[in-house]
């Protein structure tokens, strides 16, 4: 059992290294992932922020949690694209014919998503600091934020894996990122949900992004998180488990 586990971890490490080399050989990927969220942050803070009643004098503090989720959503499109290209080129079939763990190639892409999105998030936070973002959170609160962002990344990565492994075209594989992009805009990421009307408010208050944004916002400002953290964790873990099961089924048939 220990030998099997050791071989799996070694195989997964090799696949992770392979995927990360693709990232570092194409640094424009990380730049592309971060440019759009930075542009949105600049637009809302310096152009629209003065007209938005968010109940805070430092709007970048209010805005940052939603921007971090948008950044992750941007990176998800590349996960499905890379998986689709590996499938189309017969890379998975080649790996399956070799004496390596069958799921190692897929896990390599998943771990690459975690690491590359972490790099993108660090870039966004650095830009936010330049724009005036300040946090009173301690080390434990920052660890909690990192954990929630990691769970959110894993949940979306497994959703992206389903799209990348089952799509028939490149556009179809990358399209999964678009509906995810819209969720932060219909949430409390940019304005309080109390300012919304009717069905829009009901949707915003009961979709996963709002609870995740509210939890991260409370942690970064060192405020009580209330029940939002449990709702956020339930959404992330639930989506991740369901998507994982379906992704593994699709992968076995790939």
From TrEMBL:
Protein's UniProt keywords contain Membrane: yes
Record-annotated ABC transmembrane type-2 domain positions: 28-254
Entry similarity comment: Belongs to the ABC-2 integral membrane protein family.
Coiled coil: none
Predominant place of localization: membrane
Parts of the chain that traverse the membrane: 30-56, 62-84, 105-130, 142-165, 172-191, 229-251
Name by which UniProt lists this protein: Transport permease protein
Signal sequence segment: none
Domain of life where this protein originates: Bacteria
